[in-house]
Design goal:
By secondary structure, the protein is α+β, with helices and mostly antiparallel strands. Helix content is about 70%, strand content about 10%. The strands form two sheets. It has a four-stranded antiparallel beta sheet, with no helix packed on it. Helix 5 runs antiparallel to helix 6.
């Protein structure tokens, strides 16, 4: 039975251990970068900006477009008017009337010739009929049959000069792609900073939990000793109640630390992109003393100016706004483009409206010259220049703030190192004080209140040293962030 229970216990422990996930600071950073949704969005923005730049470059190249149309009309296009059609169709009849009148008048004036002209009079109706038939054919030939119209065109356009708009837009999209990359870098640095803060916050709370447990153990032991002393009559109930209060305070402190630790682990899991209820273990949580390199740093603003991605983003934004001025100005400058077209229609316009597809080539130059717009272009260019100036001033303002930020970060690093040094010395004194208090209490020469004060001072010194160690870690990260040298 005991072997079975031992096996079940070992199996349960092994399951709990296998479910636990061990994370280092580097692995937390890697998981955060891999799973962060905002960075994924920033990555897609880089892709979008890259292809937008490629699309902008195509504006330098000729473009070929095809257009086709069909149109049904209720009436056809007529080249001849109704009067013209009637006149042409009856040209024989009119000619017959005119010839008959001429011959009659001639015969009346020349009776001797009337006999000779008699055979010609019989031919006039035949001539009229022939002319009428020819006129009708002419009218039919001018019939267009354009009620069903098919048309198509193939157009080739090559920009020659567009006022500099194409070149400016190409530069804008190039800067926009670089801007997306620098924004991705900025987002990554911010994420690394948040991840490091969460990581060391968990480490701090884990160590404070150990400290709270140790303190609870101390006051519980003291409580047990006091109860024995009360039973022996060498301590009062007031001493016992005082210790009980400290036990309750230590228990409440431990509960608060455990709750804070659970929430901090959830925050770290969320940043790493893993389930919030994952049981995680950090590689630095078993370290009694965190490895820290004490150093005296100075504010190197030149490094920050050269490396800060925020400055690079603002520099690119300034360049973009300068090119927007050129784009705005280009709308009010002359533009020239070369065009080539192939036009095909049915009915054909090239051979008497015949029902066949026939086409022709054309080549030309399109010139657009804005003449008068009531100063619209002038005002818009001025507005674009104002926006460019705003970006320039923002860049100068951020440079000044970054300089101040670097000095503050360097000051905090040095201050944190000094606090750690003092906290270490205070802990040494608190350790010695607690040792003397324990010896004095065992010998009966120090009252309970003094021992409690020594224990409280020791816990406070331990906590201050732990906070100072974490502060040194975090201030160093802040300094790297302010200098733009945060590696990941």
């Amino acid at each position: 039975m005991k072997k079975t229970l031992s096996f079940v216990l070992l199996f349960s422990i092994s399951l709990g251990t296998s479910a636990q996930r061990v994370l280092s600071l580097d692995s937390c950073r890697a998981l955060a970068i891999k799973n962060n949704k905002e960075l994924m969005i920033a990555g897609e923005k880089i892709t979008s900006a890259h292809y937008t730049h490629k699309a902008a470059f195509t504006n330098f190249l000729p473009k070929l477009n095809a257009l086709g149309t069909y149109m049904r009309s209720t009436e056809e296009i007529s080249v001849l008017s109704d009067n013209q059609k009637a006149a042409i169709s009856n040209i024989g009849t009119v000619t017959q009337q005119n010839l008959t009148g001429v011959l009659t008048q001639f015969a009346q004036k020349n009776p001797a010739m009337a006999q000779l002209l008699q055979p010609l009079s019989g031919l006039i109706p035949d001539i009229a009929t022939a002319l009428n038939a020819t006129g009708s054919k002419v009218v039919d030939a001018f019939h267009t049959d354009t009620r069903n119209l098919y048309a198509g065109t193939l157009t080739l356009t090559q920009p020659i000069f567009m006022g500099g708009k194409i070149a400016a837009y190409n530069k804008i999209t190039k800067y926009a792609e670089e801007l997306a990359k620098t924004q991705y870098k900025t987002g990554t640095e911010d994420l690394i900073l948040n991840t490091d803060q969460a990581y060391w916050q968990v480490i701090s709370l884990i160590n404070k939990k150990k400290l709270a447990e140790k303190y609870l153990e101390l006051v519980n032991r003291l409580d047990s000793d006091i109860q024995k002393m009360i039973n022996e009559g060498v301590a009062t109930k007031a001493d016992g109640l005082t210790v009980k209060v400290k036990v309750n305070e230590a228990d409440m402190t431990l509960t608060r630390v455990e709750d804070g630790l659970s929430l901090s682990k959830m925050v770290l899991c969320q940043l790493c992109g893993i389930p919030l209820d994952t049981d995680i273990k950090l590689t630095d949580e078993d370290e009694e003393t965190l490895p820290i390199v004490e150093k005296q740093v100075t504010a190197d603003v030149a490094i920050a100016i050269a490396n800060r991605s925020e400055l690079r983003s603002l520099e690119l934004a300034t360049k973009i706004y300068k090119q927007k001025v050129n784009v705005t100005r280009a709308d009010y400058l002359p533009s020239i483009a070369l065009t080539g077209n192939y036009l095909v229609t049915n009915p054909s316009l090239l051979n008497g409206f015949e029902n066949k597809f026939r086409g022709m080539w054309t080549l030309g130059v399109v010139v657009k010259i804005p003449i008068w717009n009531w100063g619209e272009g002038f005002y818009k260019v001025k507005a674009a220049k104002a926006e460019a100036n705003i970006a320039k001033y923002q860049l100068a303002d951020v440079k000044e703030k970054i300089e101040l930020q670097v000095h503050q970060a360097a000051f905090k690093v040095n201050e944190a190192n000094k606090k750690l040094e003092k906290a270490s010395k205070n802990l040494e004194k608190a350790d010695e004080n607690l040792r003397y208090a324990n010896l004095g209490f065992e010998e009966g020469v120090i009252p309970t209140s003094n021992l409690l004060e020594a224990q409280t001072a020791w816990v406070s010194a331990q906590s201050e040293k732990l906070d100072a160690q974490i502060d040194v870690k975090l201030t160093d990260i802040y300094l790297q962030k302010s200098l733009g040298t945060l590696n990941y």
